[in-house]
Design brief:
The chain has one domain: TIM Barrel (Alpha-Beta Barrel), CATH 3.20.20. 45% of the residues lie in helices and 10% in strands. It contains 15 helices and 8 strands. An 8-stranded parallel beta sheet has the order 1-8-7-6-5-4-3-2. The radius of gyration is 20 Å and the shape is globular.
Length: 383
């Protein structure tokens, strides 16, 4: 029988039963979707398509602001979600990687550096308090979550297999760990509280849109990620979700360099896990950054350390402007590498990041269909 949103939310959030995705992860490897940006490029959209009527008079170029397509080209975005679901995705990510007021300000606010100034906490305080940027961030997150919710439920009902919506929370365009000023190593352009405030706004909108999970992903700065995780915790507490036992599960995924360290804060894979394990996430993993051919040893280390589900959705190899997708590896290549991860007993969730189209996800899903998932420890997770 088809479930209403309220019935589904009760099943997902009640603490008396194990989360249904957790149950799936014990039985098989779950599939997460591929790259929204890569797939958007195959539709040949123009600047005018991006702007639509709402952003027709915007003063800056917007074409690289893919999150806006959820507002201006919902038909295309929903078609991409549908294709990933039909390719076999169990987990559908919202199109909200940069949907915070801080990141959106890059496209809608003049850069003070062009007038001899600099970005600093005073500048970003104005961004946080800007009502138009706040409304824009809310609209992108809530709209994208509702689009994913509709298609996840539609395909789930048609196939008899439940699908889940993960609210994608990206790393921002600013860093809390590093100074952009080589002459002032202590300078930060933004404060922890400002980053937290932007993330809290995003989290609330994603929840309002009906997501099942919250995915803090592509972490290259562990302090930014810490702000996102604190934001999630405070939203749960302030909005009464904790008291009503309706907290959403959290997934965490980092981007690492060739040495297995987070790209800006330079934490090793083990140190990264030690820094986030107090959250008791549903899963922890690696995505983006390295292609799968270079990721194996770092994924193996994380798998050996963490007592939660392990996710992996790498880029399709290295960037290659001559490739149709902009990356080296095709669907068969990704299927082979992720199949190796599965045979090594390393993963519970698999998919693809940059360069991975619905064809890539379909190949990955087929290759992992009969592979055993990594054994899960008996730990309590947010549910």
């Amino acid at each position: 029988m088809h479930q209403t949103h309220g019935e589904r939310a009760l099943i997902l959030m009640t603490g008396t039963n194990q989360h249904p995705l957790r149950e799936i992860l014990e039985q098989r490897i779950a599939i997460i979707d591929g790259a929204m940006g890569t797939t958007i490029r195959t539709y040949g959209m123009t600047e005018a398509d991006m702007r639509g009527e709402r952003f027709r008079s915007a003063e800056k170029d917007l074409l690289n602001n893919g999150d806006l397509f959820s507002l201006t080209q919902p038909g295309m975005i929903c078609d991409i979600h549908r294709r990933f679901l039909e390719a076999g995705a169990d987990i559908l990510e919202t199109n909200t990687f940069g949907a915070t007021s801080i990141t959106q300000s890059e496209f809608f606010v003049d850069d003070p550096r062009e007038r001899g100034g600099r970005k600093n906490p005073e500048f970003y305080q104005e961004i946080i308090e800007d009502p138009q940027l706040s409304m824009l961030a809310w609209d992108i997150n809530e709209t994208s979550a509702r689009q994913c919710r509709e298609w996840a439920d539609r395909i789930g009902h048609a196939t008899g297999r439940q699908r889940f919506v993960a609210g994608a929370i990206g790393p921002l365009t600013v860093s809390l760990s590093n100074s952009p000023d080589p002459d002032d190593s202590g300078f930060r352009v933004v404060t922890f509280d400002q980053v937290k405030a932007a993330y809290m706004e995003q989290v609330r909108a994603l929840i309002a849109g009906g997501v099942d999970l919250l995915l803090v992903e592509t972490i290259f700065d562990s302090l930014n990620a810490k702000a996102a995780l604190v934001a999630i915790r405070e939203v749960f507490d302030q909005d009464g979700l904790a008291a009503r036992n309706k907290e959403l599960p959290v997934m965490i995924s980092a981007a690492v360099g060739r040495g297995g360290e987070t790209l800006i804060s330079a934490q090793t894979t083990e140190a990264f896990w030690n820094a986030v394990q107090h959250v008791h996430p549903l899963s922890v993993g690696l995505n983006c950054s390295l292609g799968p051919d270079l990721m194996y040893p770092f994924l193996a280390e994380l798998s050996a350390r963490a007592d939660v589900a392990i996710s992996c959705y790498p880029n399709a190899g290295l960037p290659n402007p001559l490739s149709e997708t902009g990356f080296d590896l095709g669907p068969g290549d990704m299927a082979r590498f992720l199949g190796d991860f599965a045979r090594g007993g390393l993963i519970n969730i698999a998919g693809g990041c940059c360069g991975n189209t619905p064809d890539h996800i379909a190949a990955i899903a087929k290759a992992l269909e009969h592979q055993e998932p990594r054994a899960l420890a008996a730990v309590e997770v947010m549910a």
